[in-house]
Amino acid sequence: MFTRALVKRPAKSLIDGITSAPQLGKPDYQQALHQHDAYIEALKQCGLHVTVLEADENFPDSCFVEDAAVITPKGAIVSRPGADSRRREAALMAPELASFFDADQMRHIESPGTLEGGDVMMVGDHYYVGLSDRTNEDGAQQFIQILEGWGLMGSAVPLKEMLHLKTGVNYLENNNMLVCGEFVHMAEFDQYNKIVVPEAEAYAANCVWVNGKVIVPMGYPQTEQAICDLGYELILVDTSEYKKLDGGLSCLSLRF
Fold first, then answer.
1. Which position among 164, 180, 185, 228 bears the catalytic label?
2. pLDDT tens-place values along the chain, 256 residues long
3. Overall pTM > 0.85
4. Whether residue 251 lies in the annotated active site
């Protein structure tokens, strides 16, 4: 069970954030704020106490706090983002995490390793780490070594198409896993009950399980029905403005 979440308000500079889909247009800042408000309320509906960090205009992508750190039951690992423009975000997140974790509960990914939290998926005591354009082999191995020092486990998963691991695969607990694209037939996930997200709804593969409820992006009816059929309570949240920056539901919070 999670008890807390940490989020960061989107900055006005959000409109200049990194994107692989410029055809979707620039985010509407006011709409992004409203959507962020609704996202925070969804976390609260799941029983979480939400800490809200102020926006930082120097970092357009900094509302995507998931990439700056990974939080485990044993402690926090401050990442080292693969995108140069985001690297300082992790350093700035460290003192915020120090409010919740003692010094001996915090670790850091060091150069030349890179790791972004969007490439890390927790399944019980095992963590899958995507090898992507943002997370390299060195960063993944550092991360796995930290896990093993805490009595946890990890394994690397090569990516060929997706930006981040959790762009296309997310664990919903109870052995249920949303998958799409390159992950549908990936052997690493054959042990789970795979719920295949239609290609037309690929964005909806990034859902968030929190304390028995599943937060789902609005506007993807097939995926919504598939998750509902599994017996979960759903909370729908519109993230259209964050989609324009390759951002999904999990990207917007650290849950612990």
1. 164
2. 999 999 999 999 999 999 988 899 999 999 999 999 999 999 999 999 999 999 999 999 999 999 999 999 999 999 999 999 999 999 999 999 999 999 999 999 999 999 999 999 999 999 999 999 999 999 999 999 999 999 999 999 999 999 999 999 999 999 999 999 999 999 999 999 999 999 999 999 999 999 999 999 999 999 999 999 999 999 999 999 999 999 999 999 999 9
3. yes
4. yes
CA pair distance 166, 178, nearest whole angstrom:
10
Rounded distance, CA 51 to CA 80, Å? Answer: 22
**Cβ-Cβ contacts under 8 Å for 224 (sequence gap 6 or more):** 204, 216, 234, 236
From 63, 180, 207, 251, active-site residue: 251
Name the DSSP letter for residue 80. Answer: B
The range of the structural domain enclosing residue 179 comes to 4-255
Annotated catalytic, 207?
no
78-to-18, 69, 108, 189, 243 alpha-carbon distances in Å: 21, 4, 5, 26, 25
CA distance 214 to 228: 9
Strands 126-131 and 49-53, by their bridges, are: unpaired
CATH of residue 120: 3.75.10.10
Domains: count for the chain: 1
